[in-house]
Amino acid sequence: MKDIDKYRGCMLGGAVGDALGYAVEFIDDEHIFRKFGENGITEYELNCNGKAEISDDTQMSLFTADGLLIGTTRGMMRGIMGSYQSYIALCYKDWLKTQTADELGFEAPEYSWLNNIPDMNHSRAPGRTCISYLMHNNLGSVNEPKNNSKGCGGVMRVAPIGLYLGGRSVDDTEVDMIGAETAALTHGHDLGFIPAAALVHIINAVSHSNIALIEAVEKAKSAVANEFSNTKHITDMVNLIDKAIALSKEEYNDLDAIRELGQGWVAEETLAIAIYCALKYSDDFEKAIIASVNHSGDSDSTGAVTGNILGAYLGTKSIPDKYLEDLELRDTIIELADDLYNDCQMSEYGEYRDPIWIRKYIEHSYPHNTGKE
């Protein structure tokens, strides 16, 4: 079951949580509530152009989506393709260029048309692990990790995998593993990539069925417990998910509950906080997002993952207009969501050709020819 409103909801929801939280990332909760009032930050902090800026979380999620579509397009048009994570890795290399564009100027994209969008070419507090390891030619994998990092940079970017591959009827376990492998490109600790597998499982479930969110979370927990049973820290992951579920059922103050789960700087805490907020406010996107960013931790990442989950679960219709109107790159985010939904309609031997799709996912010259090819 494919629902374009859920595809858009997942991608926009993640960006909304990211943009709301980005304004208070690195600020402790005491200062947040002192500045914004007893409810914390509830409205965007707009830049000089009147936009709510996204961070590296949304940027990398968009490049993840691009990599998925490049891989499928290559397979459809050439009859052969590598792993999805290999194409995502190539797009992350192009994302890396955007983080130096403010100082060095735009660089021609090798794979991703997203580099051609001026507003994408800004450094937005990128994670040090992502930056340092994407400079390497030989990236990591689940079986051959390149470091011992479990930072949240692996989990915050993978939601499009569950959204897209679930719609292609890929086996759930394979989808989970592609999520894990994508995180493991840069984050080699088992708690750096297991949360990514759990997140894509949740996104896959809620965006392609009418399953209850709590059931999706429980199934994701069981799935990763089985898929990663031989990893050192799987019990820690399962226990933290259980704790998030239990806290969501109690009359806890949100800030106190989040403190029980951590701060979100590491992947398992990011996922746990997002699960808590999404479950507690499973029918109210705004309340969930506000809870997810008002704490002394990685507010943009916890907001982004919460937004991905509830956006996929409730759809775009659940997101208040005030969070969509001034969202940076809103139209590009919708465009990527629609491409994930519509998918590549061309084939190697078919007559149909989509010139815009070709410019995006083959020629990387969209939305205009920059003259840099």
What's the β-strand tally?
Answer: 0
Strand content: under 5%
The residue-averaged pLDDT reads 96
Query: In angstroms, what separates the terminal alpha carbons?
Result: 39 Å
| Biggest sheet character | none
User: Helix share of residues?
Assistant: 55-70%
Uncertain segments are: none
Derived from helix and strand composition plus strand pairing, the structural class reads: mainly alpha
Order of helices and strands: HHHHHHHHHHHHHHHHHH
Rg value: 19 Å
Mass-distribution shape: globular
Helix run count:
18
Structure write-up:
The structure is a single chain. The protein is mainly α and 373 residues long. It is built from 18 helices and no strands. The longest helix is centred in the first third of the chain and has 23 residues, at 56-78. The radius of gyration is 19 Å and the shape is globular. The chain starts with a helix and ends in a 12-residue tail after the last helix.
SSE arrangement:
Layout: H1 4-22, H2 29-36, H3 56-78, H4 84-98, H5 101-104, H6 128-134, H7 159-167, H8 172-184, H9 190-207, H10 213-227, H11 234-248, H12 254-261, H13 267-280, H14 285-293, H15 299-314, H16 321-325, H17 330-342, H18 355-361
Helix pairs in contact: 1-3, 1-14, 1-15, 1-17, 3-4, 3-7, 3-17, 4-8, 7-8, 7-9, 8-9, 9-10, 9-15, 10-11, 11-13, 12-13, 13-14, 13-15, 14-15
Q: Which key terms come to mind for this protein?
A:
373 residues, mainly alpha, 18 helices, globular
